[in-house]
Amino acid sequence: MNNLSGRGQVAGLPAWDRCAVMGVVNVTPDSFSDGGRWFDTSVAVKHGLDLVSEGADLVDVGGESTRPGATRVDEAEELRRVIPVVRGLASEGVVVSVDTMRASVAEQSLAAGAALVNDVSGGLADPAMIPVVADAGAPFVVMHWRGFLKGGNVKGVYDDVVTEVMDELHARVEAVLAGGIAPDRIVVDPGLGFSKEAEHDLTLLAHLDRLRALGHPMLVAASRKRFLGRVLAGPEGAPPPARERDAATAAVSALAAHSGAWAVRVHEVRATADAVRVARAMEQARAGGRAAGSAPGARGVEGARETGHTLGDKGERTADGTR
User: Fold this and answer.
1) Is 225 marked active-site?
2) DSSP strand pairing (20-26 vs 263-266)
3) pLDDT digits over 130-168, tens only?
4) Catalytic residue among 18, 196, 225, 226
5) CA distances, 156 to each of 145, 203, 221, 320 (Å)
6) What is the value of pTM for the model shown?
7) What is the pLDDT of residues 271-295, one digit of tens each?
8) Distance CA 233, CA 227 (A)
9) Burial profile 292-313: b = 16 or more Cβ within 10 angstroms, e = fewer
10) Is 305 a catalytic residue?
11) Active-site residue, selected from the candidate residues 7, 81, 265, 299
């Protein structure tokens, strides 16, 4: 793994000296967390730019909900939702990730300026995906996936969730490598909430160090997910709504950054942007490095809030298994 601050870096993307923050733009009417809020193209682009100003390093644009039981949209509708938003954000210098399981959407998004393909199926949903990404030379997120979240696939059964997720991710990475995607362009994602119960998600988070042994940068996507609702509710209470789980999300972001995650994917950016910078400052303090806030590429918490996101070296701005 190409190493930077112990968490790796991804060829074709900026090199951040800390855990990166991936902001979410759902161009959908039915996502579990914020479906319908950013459904209009101009509103979605503005939201993406707002996320960057709040500290997002890259923005993940998706046009299809992957919540349990969601009905798939057709290809034409997904393209209609996604491509104008990708193009609009990329034209503003934003590093854009496209969240899709369709090769055609990935291909057209990359042509419109996307820099990364984030496929929750790891290329399993569409056999054309891996060749498209390989031909484009684009980075690719390989997520742990056991199928669409319908019927028996909603609840996963595991004897040892960490070992099984590692083994299945390793097999999928090998398939992606065999398909021609370069090893330094692969990111792995444990797939929190996808065919997993709350205890599975928590166990995976507690063993991110083992998942790093896969040898590729790691994306952690815990934002607002069901397991956080279960934790916040306690043994007898009702889980709070998804949008009331942002403080818990920021806590997971700090822990994931401390455990060496390459990036965290979140709906509410500002608190997580602060969290990963605090985690980085602690890393530096532990290593006897520079004082917090004075290292290249790092800022104090208040500085992050006052100045917003900075530009990358190249001038680029830098929901229950659901999106």
Assistant:
1) yes
2) parallel
3) 999 999 999 999 999 988 755 555 568 899 999 999 999
4) 225
5) 10, 14, 18, 13
6) 0.84
7) 999 999 999 999 999 888 544 444 4
8) 10
9) beebebbbbeeebeeebbeebe
10) no
11) 265
